[in-house]
Amino acid sequence: MSSTAANSSSPLDWKFSQVFGERRPGEDVENIDVISAIEFDKSGDYLAVGDRGGRVVIFETKASKDVTSKQHLRNASEGSDDVVIQHPEYRYKTEFQSHEPEFDYLKSVEIEEKINKLKWCTTLNGSLFMLSTNDKTIKLWKIKERKVKKVKEMDLTRNVSSESALLSESSFLSHESKSSVANGHQLEWIDNIKTSVSPSSTGYMNGENIVDGAIARCRRMYGHAHDYNINSISNNSDGETFVSADDLRINLWNLEVTDQCFNIVDMKPSNMDDLTEVITSAEFHLLHCNLLAYSSSRGFIRLVDMRQSALCDRSATMLQDTESRVQKTFFTEIVASISSIKFATDGRHILSRDYMNLKLWDMRMPTSPVVAYKIHEHLRPKLCDLYNNDAIFDKFDCCISGDGNHFATGSYSNHMRIFSNGVGTEDGTTLEASRHSYRKRQQQSASRARRSSLSNLTRGFYKQGHDASENNEFSCDLKSKLLHISWHPKTNLIACSTGNSLFMYHA
Fold first, then answer.
1. How far apart are CA 104 and CA 112, in angstroms?
2. Could you tell me which InterPro entries the record lists for this protein (predicted)?
């Protein structure tokens, strides 16, 4: 991320793109349908979504090569040098049940089926591979393409007796529908036979309509290696290993070995009363397979080199905000807990999200972040209420654009906050995750001055709390929260979730 690129970046103009699973007004959402993980693959052609019911739904981009090529030919014929860039659109591909609810009889605890994290692996031989995890078990899935031959309805053109047609029809269904044909295509009965066939007219089955499909199979299962709940998994750039992290330990796995892993970080003290922090997230470097970063509940980010020692927490570069001027209170360490970290594609910067802020770090400047963006600073006077209703423990994801100049995260009232790295963009852009609602945060110097101190913030809150023009700024629906978000790796497209709904926006 060069300084020139950073200074030249400007806020993007965001527009609604797509929605899947949109709720109707007043419709209740069951807990098992709430989305709990979102992840694009490296190409951006596929998007995986996991929910609390243990299901994984995969979307793929629509085929638009013909449209793009026609537009290119049209521009060439007209002598135009402009290139029309179309944002990708997605369609449903397949879904599968990744995890089931379990019960640990040794510890007498229930293990939820909720999908905590999803990570795409290296694509091999045209097949897709994905890691999914709940609290205890990690699974490697293979999503394989298959051809499905759909059987169309009867063609009423042949003069065969009705009795003969029914006999041939029943024979066809009793044999062919239970097995695959010689060329490997699976037969699928999709249309019912019309009952309005006259006795003198019959038909034959047309099975030439072939469509693409996909099936998912579990190829590996990595379990019984974590005493505490898994909060993150991350694939290595070498394509052979990955890490899994719980509250106190980080384990290194080989994708081919399911019964053995190496413990590379162990923060468990000999006496649990001496425990001062827990691990909240772990991510491999995008380029260097030996570099790993993990965050803690105290707001620290540790960058380790796995070549230096077997136990990586003994030699680590610590990134911490030593210049923070926030007054220390009972809630200071709680809101400082980092819930998500992401490496930028330049390999030099790290984006982190704690409860109140989104911070961009330079790995060569460990004492303070490059920039910090306030997400919902207006909630600081209400930290006591947020603590009492457990909202202060909500974990928000963060994401970074492919060029490293734009960042996004979620907030309450189904709001998404998007920032551009540059001058004069401290307030960023606010989007409400819905089909029709779109709002830009007002860039007013008066509002920035009012938020310059905690006392001014408190006075501004009570003064403007019932003002219609500032209602979205100072009111907050804690039940409607945008926790999960992911940025397309190659274009400015963001996927985010609220409840069971998946929204996409493009710029």
1. 11
2. PP2A_PR55, WD40/YVTN_repeat-like_dom_sf, WD40_repeat_dom_sf, WD40_rpt
